[in-house]
Amino acid sequence: MAELPLPNLDEIPDKPAAVPATKQVPTTVQPPSPTPTNLPKLPSFTAPKLPTIPQPNIRIPKIPWRVVLSGLGVLTAVGLIVFFLFFWKGSVIIQSTPPDSLIRLDDQVATGTLTSDLSPGTYQLSVERQDYIPYASALTLKTNEQRRLDIALRALPEPVKLSDQIVQFMTLDPERTSLLYVVPTAQTAYRLFIKDLAKPIVDEVTPNILKDITDFIWSPNRELAFFKLGEATKQYDFKRYDLVNQETHDWPTGVGSIEWRPDGEKVAYAFEPVGGERTIIRATRDNTEQERIFNLLTTTITRPSLQWSPDAKYLSLIADKLYLLDVFSKELTPLDAAGAVKAVRWLPNSSGLIIQSKDDQLSLVTLDGTVTPLLLSGRIDQIVPFADSQSLIYTQERNSRTEFSRVSLVGQPAIPYLFKAQAPLAPTNLILSSNEQTLFFVSAGNPYALFLDDGAY
Fold first, then answer.
1. pLDDT tens-digit map of 273-311
2. Closest CA to 356 of 344, 338, 365, 364
3. Residues 6+ apart with CB under 8 A from 245
4. Paired sense of beta strands 371-377 and 102-105, if any
5. What are phi and psi of 321, to 5 degrees?
6. How far is 335 from 421, CA to CA, in rounded Å?
């Protein structure tokens, strides 16, 4: 490669040569951005003036106020007429079962169905038919109210004879599903199942060995019983109603009144052997553990009748008068205010007793001896208390007709039960079902059942 010649430094001028002037190309200048101060001024606009419309010269006549009031009165009257004609009255339709029942609505009477337009107000309504519980009520109808009432009457209940046998000592089993009783002519105890009262089922629960008995005291669980054969006291073991293996046990001579404690584990009895002691004994049900809880020799009491209170705290004793024996403190208290007493029945809550006086007047006596006459005449076996101890069922015959009533012990009015009876009854041995809606009793020796209906709808 040829080498380039080096420049001669002496030939380089001290100043650069002047550059000839060239023609300049004009540059485009952007106009400035418009700003509020440099925007173009818009032309001003003046709205055209609308022509003036001339107002009509209208004169509103003045109506006298009397005319206005008259018009309002007419409108009101027309409105009231329309209201009373089409909207004031209500309507009611009453239909009864059975369809041939007699319906009364104040002075209107119809059979089966009653339809009526009525002004607002309260009316007396009744529906009746022979052998049915009558219905009665006040019917209140509001303005323009539409009412429909379907009233079904209940048939009068009738006493149902459960057996043609003559029975004694009737009671309910603990489950209250069957009645237990003794048939003296058959010398046998029976169980009658009450699930279907129209077709009750009857079973024997003992062989025919109960001859000439004078008392029969069922244990609370109905597995044992005491019975009296003359002066002898015997205990009967049903062996859970096993007819083959049942047993009879003799108790000591001198055992008088004997009562099961409510739990069935013990008994109390008056013990008066000839020429011996006179005491109240508490013992186990097989008489193996005896406890003398009161010595009657310190009193004039002989051959008392005993009855446990439901809470097992007291024994009532009836002799010349009524006594209470506290089985825990072993104190005997005479209830002098009760006077001469023939029979008693404890209230279920143990707060007092219903007493039958010597002249067969019934009263309530409390544990402190306060006596309240019930103004009832009858026997203890003609009443049965309700479980709440606030009332009892009482039966009597009046005007050749048997009556059943719920009698209050707290001052409420008595409530009669309605039923249909073909002939007068003589009810005794009253027993209430578990739901307290059915009453069992004995009349002329036969067992009966009656559904309790107080007539309320």
1. 998 899 999 999 999 999 999 999 999 999 999 999 999
2. 344
3. 239
4. unpaired
5. -155, -170
6. 41
